[in-house]
Design goal:
- There is one protein chain.
- By secondary structure, the chain is α/β, with parallel strands linked by helices.
- The chain is built from eight helices and 39 strands.
- The chain has a 22-stranded mixed β-sheet, with no helix packed on it. The protein has a seven-stranded parallel β-sheet with strand order 9-11-13-15-17-19-21, with no helix packed on it. Strands 1-4 form a two-stranded antiparallel sheet.
- Strand 34 and strand 35 form a beta hairpin.
- Helix 5 packs antiparallel against helix 7.
- The longest helix has 26 residues.
- Keywords: ATP-binding, Cell membrane, Glycoprotein, Kinase, Leucine-rich repeat, Membrane, Nucleotide-binding, Phosphoprotein, Receptor, Repeat, Serine/threonine-protein kinase, Signal, Transferase, Transmembrane, Transmembrane helix.
- It is found in: Cell membrane.
- This is non-specific serine/threonine protein kinase.
- Its main location: membrane.
């Protein structure tokens, strides 16, 4: 809870105070003296706090005798007295030790030390109402002494490195309303003492290592509106009366755990639930038919915005009653064993944007009703890996907002409709692994396409010339019956399009092909028929993994060990290029898009189009190449000294490597929109890792 800075009255002169005190009743005199002593105690406590803090931004410069301490930066005093009720140092880059004297601030209600540490002495701040320490590097256990803060209403410790168990003593926080320990390393069970938190409305322990059954104590907290247990090791069944015990839920996120059994039918009675995510568990059986069964009534999930039942073991059909969940924005039921057809009643979900039904056993066709004149505002439609037949409905062109369409690996067998070219927002199109026939239609209006895959079909004719103009395309037309020349000047000039997969780079077109009798996969790059043949890298570039743009929410992810290995691979390559080559080589354009990954995620440095040789002395670029170099490279990665006329050197590559490491750590580009004014990638990392 944050408090605005409140105005304070000016101090009376000592003379006036002395005269005035003569006319005060004894009781008032005692209160005044107590207040004076309390104020002096608060002032001394703040000065002690300052003496242990080193602030690079000098935020504590105002903390001196020239100002009333209630006017010091970050300090808020109360109206009834001049005692400190709030301290706010969020994002102030404070460094040092928090003095135990902070426990002397007896009126303190709010403390915000985001990017600080948890002092045990906080337990003495008996009036503290809000404690928010998120986004720090806090370690060790949560102090059990926090259970003494009986007036605490908000306790947020998320996004740290806290470990150990959930302190049972926190059950004493009977006034607590919001608890968030998400993104830490807590383990063990949730203690039963949590049932004593009768005021609790929000409980978030997502992404930890907690275990046991669904916390039984939560069933006793009917006031809960938000429960997040995502990505832990909770297991077992949910109680059949789940929705009756927790009738006020608005958000329930319990996915990526080990829950099993059937989905409680009583969930459909939670009248105000907006988001239900049980994806990535082991739920079995059918989807309760009561979900959405009574339109516009109390309950039946009529307020639901997000429904994620994906990656479970559900069977049976998608209930037609889903069409009554008219507020639905996202429907995710991928990776189950659902059968039957896609219900046409979904057309009544007039706000629906994301539909992901891939990896099931659905049959029939895509209902025309979903794509009618008043079609759904679909952004993502993924029905891949099913047994759907026919073709796309003729009115597919009505999907003006569609960004990603994946209908691959079904049994579609008709021609690809030219109306698909009216989906002008389309960036990703996957239609491979079907039985589409005929020629590739005119889709030249799809100027923003980035992934275009029509492989493994029965397509005929020539490759349309417009396909070479797609921006940064990933084009795959392999394993069809196409013929004729590849419509790219100088690349595979008279080759049959048995397999072609390409992207447009800065220095020519790149295609995937087969080389030799063993049909080894290779990448071919060139202009004016001066091809370069490379080993094909099936895992693409590091750029694709750090910044995926496939529109499918199937996030590419590299764990810490993989990132370290990639960094070592790149460093080893630079070690070879710089001191171990007979003539040292400066790459001059080191960045994630030029780091390619093979089958085993081994990293390879690519694209030596700007590379330069050093003279034998190793100190300067060969003079014959200086005129070609200039200051090129890529903004954000190129060494700053090059812009001031410095000669090329291996130090420039080392600078680029450093930027690459920071980007791998944060997944932020050096030219990210976040970086404004004095904030850049370097000090962004320093904020997260002080010291």
């Amino acid at each position: 809870m944050e408090h605005p800075v409140m105005s304070t009255t000016s101090l009376f002169s000592l003379t006036f105070c002395a005269i005035f005190l003569l006319f005060l009743p004894i009781s008032i005199l005692k209160i005044s003296l107590a207040t004076t002593l309390s104020n002096e105690t608060d002032k001394l406590a703040l000065l002690e706090f300052k003496s242990h803090i080193d602030s690079p931004l000098s935020v504590l410069v105002s903390w001196n005798e020239s100002f009333d301490f209630c006017q010091w930066v970050g300090v808020t005093c109360g109206n009834k007295h001049q005692g400190v009720i709030g301290l706010d140092f969020q994002n102030k880059k404070l460094v040092g030790i928090i003095s135990p004297h902070i426990g002397n601030l007896s009126f303190l209600q709010s403390l915000n030390l985001a990017r600080g540490e948890i002092p045990v002495s906080l337990s003495h701040c008996s009036n503290l109402q809000s404690l928010d320490l998120k986004y720090n590097q806090l370690v060790h256990e949560i102090p059990s002494e926090l259970g003494f803060l009986s007036k605490l209403q908000i306790l947020i410790l998320e996004s740290n490195h806290l470990s150990g168990r959930f302190p049972p003593s926190l059950g004493n926080l009977s006034s607590l309303q919001n608890l968030s320990f998400a993104y830490n390393n807590l383990e063990g069970e949730i203690p039963n003492t949590i049932a004593q938190m009768k005021s609790l409305t929000s409980f978030d322990v997502a992404i930890n290592h907690l275990s046991s059954l669904f916390p039984p104590s939560l069933y006793n907290l009917s006031s809960l509106t938000y429960i997040a247990l995502t990505m832990n090791n909770f297991s077992g069944h949910l109680k059949p009366d789940f929705g009756i015990a927790l009738p006020n839920l608005q958000i329930l996120w319990i996915g990526l755990n080990l829950f099993k059994g059937t989905i409680p039918v009583s969930l459909s009675n939670v009248s105000d639930i907006h988001s239900l995510d049980i994806g990535g568990d082991y739920f079995t059986g059918t989807i309760p038919m009561s979900f959405g069964s009574i339109p516009n009534s109390i309950g039946k999930l009529s307020s639901l915005n997000i429904l994620n039942l994906g990656a479970n073991k559900l069977i049976g059909e998608i209930p037609s009653s889903f069409g009554n969940m008219t507020q639905l924005l996202g429907l995710y039921m991928y990776n189950n064993s659902l059968e039957g057809s896609i219900p046409p009643s979904l057309e009544r979900c007039s706000h629906l944007q994301d539909v992901c039904l891939c990896h099931n056993k659905l049959n029939g066709t895509i209902p025309e009703q979903l794509l009618g004149p008043q079609s759904l505002p679909l952004v993502l439609l993924n029905v891949s890996h099913n047994s759907l037949t026919g073709s796309l409905p003729p009115n597919v062109g009505n999907l003006k907002l569609l960004v990603a369409l994946d209908i691959s690996y079904n049994k579609f067998s008709k021609e690809i409709l030219a109306q698909l070219g009216d989906c002008l927002a389309l960036e990703t199109l996957y239609m491979q692994g079907n039985y589409f026939k005929g020629t590739i239609p005119d889709l030249s209006k799809l100027k923003g396409i980035q992934y275009f895959d029509l492989s493994n079909n029965n397509l005929l004719g020539q490759i349309p010339r417009y396909t070479i103009n797609f921006h940064e395309q990933n084009l795959n037309l392999s394993f069809n019956n196409l013929e004729g020349d590849v419509p790219v000047e100088g690349v595979f000039r008279n080759a049959s399009a048995v397999e072609v997969k390409g992207s447009i780079g800065n220095f020519g077109n790149v295609y995937k092909g087969k080389l030799g009798l063993d049909e080894k996969n290779v990448a071919v790059k060139g202009n004016d028929f001066k091809p370069l043949v490379y080993e094909f890298m099936p895992n693409g570039s590091l750029e694709m993994w750090l910044h995926p743009e496939d529109g499918f929410k199937q996030l590419r992810s590299l764990n810490l060990l993989q990132r370290i290995n990639i960094a070592i691979d790149v460093a080893s390559a630079l070690l070879y290029l710089h001191p171990h080559c007979q003539t040292p080589i400066i790459h001059y354009d080191l960045k994630p898009s030029n780091i390619l990954l093979d089958d085993d995620l081994n990293a390879h440095i690519s694209d030596f189009g700007l590379a330069r040789l050093l003279s034998k002395s190793g100190k300067e670029v060969l003079l014959s190449q200086l005129s070609l170099a200039g200051v090129k490279g890529t903004v954000g990665y190129v060494a700053l000294e090059y812009g001031m006329g410095s000669q090329l050197s291996t130090n420039g590559d080392v600078y680029s490597f450093g930027i690459l490491l920071l980007e791998m750590l944060t997944r932020r580009r050096p030219i990210d929109k976040l970086f404004k004014d004095d904030l850049n990638l370097h000090n962004f990392v320093k904020l997260a890792l002080p010291g």
